[in-house]
Amino acid sequence: MKLAILSRSPDCYSTQRLTEAARHRGHDAEVLDTIKFAIDLERGAPDLYYRQKQIEDFDAVLPRIGASITYYGTAVVRQFQEMDVFCANTAHGINNSRDKLRSLQLLSRHHIGIPRTTFVHSKRDVLPAIERVGGAPVVIKLIEGTQGIGVLLAETVKQAEAIIELLQSQKQNVLIQKFVAESKGRDIRAFVVGDRVVAAMRRVAQGQEFRSNVHRGGIAERVELPPEYVETAVRATQIMGLQVAGVDMLESNSGPQIMEVNSSPGLEGIETCTGLDVAGAVIEYIAAQVDFPEIDVRQRLTVSKGYGVSEIYIPEGAKFVGKTIRETQLYEHDINVLTLYRGAKVIPNPKPERELEANDKLLCFGKLEAMRGMVPAKTRRRRRPDISDLPADVVHAGETETSD
């Protein structure tokens, strides 16, 4: 396998260990500076150049994209994807995880534990938002930040107001998050590769510091995770669209709560703490996957005219409740059920004999018109607003807003 490791820091521990692990297993690994690529586009021929030389023969790419170059870095990764090169993490997954708000929005609808969080813009909404997450103390986070940078603890409501006002005056977007007191300055870092947690450590903050990041002086210890924590870490990684990730979780009274899913997790802390060859696990996973490159399923499936991917929701009292998937006759309507979502459970490729329950969601591929027919008529009417003529008194001149 010929592997490209995208990194701006060839001498850092993580990059060196990944390169060493790949070469130790007989693979050809090259470290390429992410911003030294040029992206060429023409009809039917996506190309990449590195230092003015055309890229042609890589089997796989392992992105190590820093926060400061997210836009350009994900553009390079996306170009590799369009060239059908296997990417350990896709551009879509990296973007999902890099934005704290977006990642929490994705996790919140999949029954994954997260600290109660709110996002506001108006100053008048700050106090009600703090109350909704449970009152002070609260954690205030910049939407983009790594290694504990941009994470602040406000002990009182007054402190929280002052911090938020200051950050917003600097054009920073912030999240207000419930402080999970029982975590006591501790968190779990689970290193996920594919569908496994290959290593885990508990990080403990020192002194008055509430952030447990190793970069902030936290001390790490090896830990064996309970099944609930393993499942949460793997599912969070998959929901983000990642295959290699560091998942940070708080140990709350209600179970694991996700703080962050990191698409470029460092190796030094976890390898030193656990004594495990995490870099080797990453390389072996990539080598096993190169014949099955990650693709954008929705994009590929929706190129067929009239066909697409959509969700069918089964509400209380729906005609499908109590029926098996076969009895719904979806297949006869040219609709295939890809995945069944039931509460916190994800059931891929469900058997035709599986009985449906209220509040199930079916991820389906098939004729879009047929799937629209599964939506109640009242809902369909709401989705298709009538277009009326403009009122006679509408003034067309002197508009102040910018037109599209």
Offer a quick outline of the entry.
The protein is α+β, with helices and mostly antiparallel strands and 404 residues long. It is built from twelve helices and 20 strands.
- Spatial strand arrangement across the major sheet: 14-13-12-15-16
Oligomer: single chain
| Strand portion | 25-35%
pLDDT averaged over residues = 86
Structural class: alpha+beta
Number of helical elements: 12
Shape summary: globular
| Sheet with most strands | 5 strands, antiparallel
User: Ends: how far apart?
Assistant: 48 Å
Find the count of extended strands (DSSP E, 2+ residues). 20
From the alpha carbons, calculate the radius of gyration and give it in angstroms. 24 Å
Model regions low in confidence, pLDDT < 50 over at least 5 residues = none
Helicity range of the residues? Answer: 25-40%
Region (Disordered): 376-404
Domain ATP-grasp: 104-287
GO molecular function: ligase activity
GO cellular component, one term: ribosome
Topology:
Blueprint: E1 2-6, H1 13-24, E2 28-32, E3 37-40, E4 47-50, E5 53-54, E6 60-63, H2 70-82, E7 86-87, H3 91-98, H4 100-108, E8 117-119, H5 126-132, E9 138-142, E10 151-154, H6 157-169, E11 174-178, E12 186-193, E13 196-204, E14 219-222, H7 227-240, E15 244-252, E16 255-262, H8 268-274, H9 278-289, H10 297-301, E17 307-314, E18 335-342, E19 345-348, E20 360-367, H11 368-372, H12 377-383
Parallel strand pairs: 1-2, 1-6, 6-7
Antiparallel strand pairs: 3-4, 4-5, 8-11, 9-10, 9-11, 12-13, 12-15, 13-14, 15-16, 17-20, 18-19, 18-20
Helix pairs in contact: 1-9, 2-3
Organism: Microbulbifer flavimaris
Keywords: ATP-binding, Ligase, Magnesium, Manganese, Metal-binding, Nucleotide-binding, Protein biosynthesis, Ribonucleoprotein, Ribosomal protein
Cofactor: Mn(2+); Mg(2+)
